[in-house]
From TrEMBL:
This is Ras-related protein Rab-24. The lineage of its organism: Eukaryota, Metazoa, Ecdysozoa, Arthropoda, Hexapoda. NCBIfam families: small_GTP. Pfam families: Ras (PF00071). One of its GO terms (molecular function) is GTP binding. Transmembrane segments: none annotated. InterPro entries: P-loop_NTPase, Small_GTP-bd, Small_GTPase. Keywords: Nucleotide-binding. Belongs to the small GTPase superfamily. Rab family.
Amino acid sequence: MSKVDLKVVLLGSTCVGKSSLLERYVYDRFRGGVPYQNTIGAAFAAKEVESHGKKFFMGIWDTAGSERYEAMSRIYYRGAKAAIVCYDITDRPSWDKADFWINELRRIEENCKIYLVGTKLDVISDISERAVGLDMVARYSKRIEAPFIETSSKTGENVAELFQMIAEDYMLNPENVRQVEESIKLSARNKRGSCCLVSS
């Protein structure tokens, strides 16, 4: 695989659906009914994305949400250009913990762009089932200057849109564009070099 140009970390409490979000985006699948397993440390997947007419690789680290793995998860913050902070819209404690993850991240990687993501949108059928109101999220996201979006990994709603938004925002930075262009050139040179090798 080509080198990762855009490093993204998934943060949030246990059971908010970080792994399901990753699976839906990268593999377009949802493993409903499969016994839940906590992520230990971090899981990784990569996908080629396209923005502003250029293709590049997004690497996504799905970090553990359990408190016993918090210290381990911090090592994956380094070099992250974007962070998806997840909360379950039917679970208020998961929203309350989001502020913790954001403060942790900014302490280690202060220039990382944050995206607030409400998960399990498919679960609610009316507003009474919401534990996290849109107005509250909107006020908080405005204060910390982070876009927010609600998603469903089960149906796929807004999942591709979330990651495309991250790719688009990344390519708004001229320095990132230069790095992607260099990566494309390097990959092309490597391909030319490998096709010209002759075995004797």
